[in-house]
Write a structure and sequence with these properties.
By secondary structure, this protein is mainly α. It contains eleven helices and no strands. The termini are far apart.
Length: 229
């Protein structure tokens, strides 16, 4: 058990002294996750709003597909994206493999169903009398839709926070698409897997502590959103 306590002590020293290799993985994780959540929100909020607000043929079937994709295995996403962006793939000329944009694209696909599903649920859970009340007050269809989205804002923010948490803790996609390249595409999760496999528990514990801290902040933010809602 001594190696565990020594690992914690060394991990704290790495964090306090600002070890470059440790913080390189942290900053890479934040970059990748931030890019992926921005892309997922840009696509997912409008799609989720359409599924939650409007009635149209096939709506239930699309919602069922989105809900199914919530359990999409990360290795499947990694495999599909790898096949598309590898040199022999249709997007191979873009040079996305083993790059931060490449990882972000794969993570966007992974977290997009979370944003769509939670946004759609937040919008569809509005009071049934809401639309009639807003129309009665003189709002047109566009204004009514915008107001509905505003009233669902806490649910949308919760979707963003949940998706961001999933992106930060992702390891399979980051490993397959990023290649775990030191100083370049190595993230917190891939670094923990690598360093633990090498027996370097100190750096693994240091990164694990940062990951736990990020998870705590995300969950704390979700709790605040739920209380406000």
């Amino acid at each position: 058990m001594d190696y565990i306590f020594e690992g914690f002590a060394t991990a704290l020293m790495l964090l306090v002294r600002g070890d470059p290799e440790t913080y390189s993985a942290v900053f890479t994780t934040l970059r990748v996750s931030s890019l992926s959540i921005l892309a997922a929100l840009f696509i997912g909020i409008p799609v989720g709003f359409l599924l939650g607000y409007y009635e149209f043929p096939g709506r239930r079937q699309i919602r069922a597909v989105v809900d199914t994709l919530l359990a999409l295995p990360t290795v499947v996403v990694g495999l599909v994206v790898y096949a598309i962006i590898t040199r022999r793939g249709p997007l191979g000329s873009l040079g996305l493999l083993f790059t931060i944009p490449g990882i972000s694209a794969a993570q966007t696909i992974l977290i997009l169903p979370i944003v769509i599903a939670m946004t759609g649920t937040a919008v569809s859970n509005l009071d049934e009398r809401f639309k009639q009340t807003v129309i009665t007050l003189g709002a047109d269809s566009t204004r009514t839709a915008i107001t509905a989205l505003y009233e669902s804002r806490y649910g949308v923010v919760a979707a963003a926070v949940a998706a961001y948490g999933r992106a930060i803790g992702e390891v399979g996609v980051s490993m397959m698409i990023g290649g775990n390249i030191k100083w370049h595409t190595r993230t917190i999760t891939t670094a923990i897997a690598l360093e633990t496999g090498k027996g370097q528990f100190a750096m693994g514990i240091a990164l694990g502590l940062i990951l736990l801290l990020l998870a705590f902040v995300i969950n704390w933010t979700l709790q605040i959103i739920k209380r406000k809602k």
